[in-house]
Amino acid sequence: MIPNDSVVFMIASFGKVTDLIELFEKGTAFLTDRDEQGRSLLSVSLCNLTVKSPNADIVCKSWFEC
Length: 66
Fold this sequence. Notes:
Blueprint: H1 7-14, H2 17-26, H3 41-47, E1 50-52, E2 57-59
Antiparallel strand pairs: 1-2
């Protein structure tokens, strides 16, 4: 388990995909990383998903509890 406030989970939540890839390439983060609640990087990123569109910002709420 990795702390919820670790760099990898901050990037997964609010950062850029390119920054996340950089951590993978350096070997400081892995696709199998889990937070303190057992959530994957993908799960955490979906909890904070914002879709940018030309007309508006749409915040997507996930179908599972974040």
